[in-house]
Amino acid sequence: MIMGRFSHSQRKAHAALARAVIRLSFIATVGLPNLGFTQEVRSPDHRFSLEFETGAVWQSRNQIQIPDNSNGTRFDLTDIQGNGPNVQRRVELTWNLSHQHSLRFVYAPLGFSGTGSFGSPVRFSGGTFAPGVPIDSDYKFDSYRLTYRYLVHESERWRWRIGATAFIRDARVELRQQGRVASDSNVGFVPLLSTSLEYDIAPRWTALLDFDGLVSTQGRAIDAALKVRYDLTDHWFMTAGYRVFEGGVDNDRYAFGWYNFALVSVGVRF
Questions:
Q1: What letter would DSSP give residue 29?
Q2: Is there a domain that residue 58 lies in?
Q3: Mean pLDDT over all residues of the chain?
């Protein structure tokens, strides 16, 4: 017998090693499937997907000039509101019409408020605001979107979709100082190009790139997200990632902002 060549202490060490190997083998064959490192469990043919996103949002800049002429002063709302972070929310509902065709509905509210003062007089929407005196401010930019996408490429790991988005904005800026109030509201429609790219990193793990955007002579809108999704079950999933939202208008009013999002979400397919 080979084991007869080892001492008693050596045999005990080898027995302990064997038990450890058996335990690791048991974990590898039983534990890892439960953690999702075996076969894919997600079905690609669910009819609907509902996702709730939250996290933190920072405004890098939020420049306003209304009206966009000599009667308005260009200022940055971050000077009186700060950069954040604020809590952000977003809801997405995807309707898979077929394996290749899908519609997505998005509601994405965005808002900042704060109190501060300017270093020089500011003329905004018919009102004049004195420097060095506290100003209360509110900013809202809620968006509603309907996106159509078509699956143009699908392989073992890659999926690429392209389409278009109907983007409706509901924006409002208000300044208040010692009883003086000035505000500006704007509701508008913007058509955007849309695309998404998915890559299966490992079973249950998928990297996602999601993009809506368009640039024109009078403005632009860009919403891009890079996320990682983990499929908890065939129905439930979670994501985490980063989103940038940038854009604005330059016509009779000037308004451009840049927002950064750290996001997490939970979703369900049904």
A1: I
A2: yes
A3: 88
Reported as a single tens digit per residue, the pLDDT across 74-117 is: 999 999 999 999 999 999 999 999 999 999 999 999 999 999 99
Statement: residue 42 has pLDDT above 50 = no
Sign of the dihedral through C-alpha 127, 187, 93, 242: negative
The amino acid at 121: P
Considering only CA atoms, which of 108, 75, 67, 91 is closest in space to residue 245?
108
Considering the domain architecture, whether residues 12 and 141 belong to the same structural domain is answered as no
In 235-269, which positions are buried (b, 16+ CB within 10 angstroms) versus exposed (e)? eebebebebebbbbbeeebbbbbbbbbebebebeb
| In the block, residue with structure tokens 């018919």 | 126
Is 40 contained in some domain? no
Q: Tell me how far CA of residue 104 lies from CA of 132, 163, 214, 235, in angstroms.
A: 46, 11, 18, 18
Pull the structure tokens for residue 21. Answer: 């190997």
- Judge contact between 168 and 177, C-beta under 8 A: no
Task: Give the whole-angstrom CA distance, residue 212 versus residue 147.
Answer: 9
**DSSP reduced 3-state for 19:** helix
Query: CATH code at 142?
Result: 2.40.128.90
- Count CB neighbours of 35 within 10 A: 10
In this prediction the pTM is: 0.81
pLDDT at 266 over 90: yes
Burial class (CB in 10 A: 0-12, 13-18, 19+), 41: middle
Amino acid at 180: R
Question: Mean per-residue pLDDT for 234-244?
Answer: 98
pLDDT for residue 219: 87
Task: For residue 197, give the nearest of 151, 235, 232, 243 by alpha carbon.
Answer: 151
Q: pLDDT value at position 22?
A: 41
What CA–CA distance (Å, rounded) separates 137 from 145?
27
